[in-house]
């Protein structure tokens, strides 16, 4: 429900924030459905991601000032609101010279894509990665970050009525190849995966935050005979594990912001929706073959 709440009193270490925009992600839907790994006590404000402008700071706050832009530093902040008061440690400052939709969608998908490309294997220009769900928010970020690093991408999507438009859009982002799951089964696709020396390292995006690393597209025998490894990845867990290493987060955010400033990393395809139309935005998010991320304007 959309309802009016009293804004909490500003504490000495608190930040009063006016939210600007917040996306609807699959994890938000899962949280509402009660199936996500982290569930807030009810009643709760939904929304894990977004960007806001600082209106006022408590007297002990030194790192932020009115006018600064902030994004959540934690999962479950509750961003689907017009205003909120949060402890300083729950927020992360971002520059206000990047597009607002880029800032609103910065803390989840681009970070996941960045870590996926940086942490699983040592990739060099000319290497290739393969991902499925390539039209997702993470997939679009992978394409752009890889392109900026000289890494080629093979992008797998589900067949759909508007496939030519989707292929055109992903190619414009920098995708080297866009294929459907059905096309992958054709024998002639073997040529796409040939490499000159060792077995290819193919990075597969399994959807909703899970990432795997594999050495071929063959089934169980690849795991047994070729030392293929499959790993899960969850950005929330990465943040927990690096809570005592703020420099690792800062360097990642700086790298992503620089890509945005250069126009090499853009927000995913978005539909801007006023907060009062949130029900329509939720329905659009859950439709099959959703090709545009719903962004609540607050």
TrEMBL record:
CC annotations in GO:
mitochondrion
**Know the name of this protein?**
Enoyl-[acyl-carrier-protein] reductase, mitochondrial
What would be the name of the gene that encodes this protein?
Mecr
- Show where the Enoyl reductase (ER) domain sits: 1-298
Provide the top EC class. Answer: oxidoreductase
| Gene Ontology biological-process entries | fatty acid biosynthetic process
Q: What family is reported?
A: Belongs to the zinc-containing alcohol dehydrogenase family. Quinone oxidoreductase subfamily.
Compartments annotated for it: namely: Mitochondrion
Q: Which Pfam families match?
A: ADH_N
Q: Which InterPro entries match?
A: ADH-like_N, ER, GroES-like_sf, Mito_Enoyl-ACP_Reductase, NAD(P)-bd_dom_sf
Q: Give the transmembrane region(s).
A: none
Q: Which Enzyme Commission number(s) are listed? A: 1.3.1.104
Q: One GO MF term, please? A: enoyl-[acyl-carrier-protein] reductase (NADPH) activity
Q: Keywords assigned by UniProt?
A: Acetylation, Fatty acid biosynthesis, Fatty acid metabolism, Lipid biosynthesis, Lipid metabolism, Mitochondrion, NADP, Oxidoreductase, Transit peptide
- Highest taxon of the lineage: Eukaryota
Annotated CDD domains: ETR
